[in-house]
Write a structure and sequence with these properties.
about 270 residues, alpha+beta, 8-stranded mixed beta sheet, 8 helices, about 25% helix
């Protein structure tokens, strides 16, 4: 799988911890797979404004120029289409809470494209300071898997299991894989919702917030996102995964993930 680069101004804990402030209302659904929170038109418009702000475009120019494929002045980044919701595996589902959706809304993603065709996803969330771009990731995973999921299971919930970087679509009583990591996890034919819950509970059930594993702060376990360090990037709203591991917030705490090695983007 293609490695994805990340931008730098804070830790990834802030990326997803910020999404707890989204304040989105859940959708009602009679389907066996409850639906995650919905992003409203107002949220999408606010995300679009953050994604197209001058400071964001300036950071994107540096981001696209980082490997010398295009100069910073010639990058001329633009944002295409509207922001889309991105869902991640829900800790409530892992914990087996009744009625919990398999996924929860983590952030909104906007597609950025440079003059030479490079693509990136702008992760946008509502923070205490308002709507901000909180991360930049190379490639188009968020948008590609949204399309694949809609084609494979119309009306299903597309989501990512960040611990193994796997993408799925869930609907009815099934969880179907959308990439190679997901195929390795549940097989090419997918699995039942109950089967998927059993797998993730076995893998992460003892690592939820409040567990001994999390309290020890072990890699792969859940830690307090507020304990993560941060740094500023000249006033930029973009946050970062620094190095080869990052913390992603779940359930109001955080999970320290051993992610595939990614090239850090130095915005300075």
């Amino acid at each position: 799988m293609t490695l994805r680069a990340r931008a730098t101004t804070a830790t990834a804990a802030a990326v997803l911890a910020a999404t707890a402030l989204l304040g989105l209302a859940p959708q009602a659904s009679a389907a066996p797979v409850p639906q995650p929170a919905a992003a409203t038109a107002e949220h999408k418009a606010a995300a679009a404004r953050a994604a197209t702000a001058p400071d964001t475009l300036a950071t994107l120019s540096r981001f696209f120029a980082r490997e010398g494929k295009v100069s910073q002045a010639a990058a001329r980044p633009r944002v295409e289409g509207e922001a889309i919701p991105v869902n991640h595996l829900s800790p409530d589902f892992v914990a087996g809470k009744a009625g919990a959706s398999v996924a929860r809304l983590e952030f909104l993603a906007s597609k950025a494209v440079s003059s030479d065709g490079q693509q990136a996803a702008l992760w946008t969330a509502r923070t205490e300071a308002g709507w901000q771009v909180v991360n930049i990731a190379t490639g188009d995973d968020e948008f590609r898997y949204a399309r694949l999921g809609a084609a494979k299971l119309p009306g299903g919930t597309v989501f990512r299991e960040p611990q193994i970087d796997a993408w799925y679509v869930a609907g009815g009583e099934r969880v179907l894989p959308l990439d190679e990591d997901a195929v390795r996890a549940v097989g090419s034919g997918g699995t039942t919702l109950a089967g998927y819950r059993s797998r993730v509970t076995a893998a992460y059930g003892d690592k939820l917030p409040g567990s001994v594993y999390a309290e020890q702060g072990m890699a792969g376990g859940f830690t307090d996102a507020s304990a993560e360090p941060s740094a500023q990037d000249g006033g930029s709203a973009v946050t970062a995964l620094a190095g080869s591991a990052g913390a992603l917030a779940m359930g109001g705490a955080g999970v320290l993930l051993a992610l595939r090695r990614r090239r850090a983007f130095a915005a300075a």
